[in-house]
């Protein structure tokens, strides 16, 4: 009887570990929504600054960069602190976290490179940014089995291709392409992920 009870307890522990691992591999969508709106708003502000002939309009991205670095550093610290407190870790969760760190480092380096090489002035740098977005969206969507983010990746790849092919003709409208790709790739899938996350959390509570 005692041995049978031990086996039952072992199965319950295993089941709890699996459930906790599943819960860990969910995306609340908050990060996508926050970064999506930030990128979209800065792109639109930059567009209108150019439209009205404001000198040094591109400096708004420097402000965004500084603010972004602070948020990234805070996010990495918070994630690592939270990770050390968990008793159950998943390979997917850890891998996605590390890829995310690599993505944000690449994003910062790309912005610095665009500013120092002059690519920022032509607008072609936004094509490279969309390539980075698409890569991260596709990896994230595949890891969490969330197709809307994979579709968002396709949109960003197409946007990048459009900028590379027609950046001269697009001119300042490159910023509008960038904003639209972020809305379709980040914001909309982000809200969808948030709704799914909330539904799963509510069903867990009610269940």
Summarize this structure as a short list of keywords or feature phrases:
single chain, 207 residues, 8 helices, mainly alpha
Textual characterization of the structure:
The chain has 207 residues and is mostly helical. The protein has one domain. It contains 8 helices and no strands. Helix 7 runs antiparallel to helix 8. It is globular and about 70 Å long. It starts with a helix and ends with a helix. The mean pLDDT is 80.
Topology:
Elements: H1 2-24, H2 30-51, H3 60-85, H4 91-117, H5 119-122, H6 125-143, H7 147-170, H8 174-206
Helix pairs in contact: 2-8, 3-4, 4-6, 6-7, 6-8, 7-8
Helix % is over 70%
Counting DSSP H or I runs of 4 or more residues, the number of helices is 8
The domain tally reads: 1
Characterize the main sheet: none
Number of strands: 0
Low-confidence stretches: none
What general form does the structure show? Answer: globular
Rounded to the nearest angstrom, the radius of gyration is 21 Å
- The computed structural class is mainly alpha
Give, in order, the helices and strands.
HHHHHHHH
Beta content comes to: under 5%
Distance between the termini: 30 Å
In round numbers, the mean pLDDT is 80
């Amino acid at each position: 009887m005692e041995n049978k009870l031990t086996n039952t307890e072992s199965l319950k522990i295993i089941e709890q570990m699996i459930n906790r691992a599943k819960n860990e591999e969910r995306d609340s969508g908050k990060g996508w929504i926050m970064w999506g709106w930030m990128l979209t708003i800065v792109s639109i502000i930059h567009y209108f600054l150019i439209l009205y002939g404001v000198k040094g309009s591109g400096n708004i991205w420097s402000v965004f960069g500084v603010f972004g670095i602070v948020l990234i550093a805070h996010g990495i610290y918070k994630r690592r602190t939270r990770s050390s407190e968990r008793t159950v870790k998943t390979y997917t969760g850890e891998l996605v976290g590390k890829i995310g760190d690599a993505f944000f480092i690449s994003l910062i380096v790309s912005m610095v490179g665009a500013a120092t090489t002059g690519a920022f002035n032509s607008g072609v740098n936004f094509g490279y940014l969309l390539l980075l977005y698409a890569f991260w969206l596709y990896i994230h969507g595949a890891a969490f089995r969330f197709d809307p983010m994979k579709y968002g990746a396709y949109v960003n790849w197409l946007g990048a291709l459009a900028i590379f092919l027609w950046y001269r003709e697009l001119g300042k409208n490159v910023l509008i392409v960038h904003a639209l790709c972020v809305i379709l790739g980040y914001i909309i899938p982000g809200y969808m992920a948030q709704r799914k996350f909330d539904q799963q959390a509510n069903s867990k509570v009610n269940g």
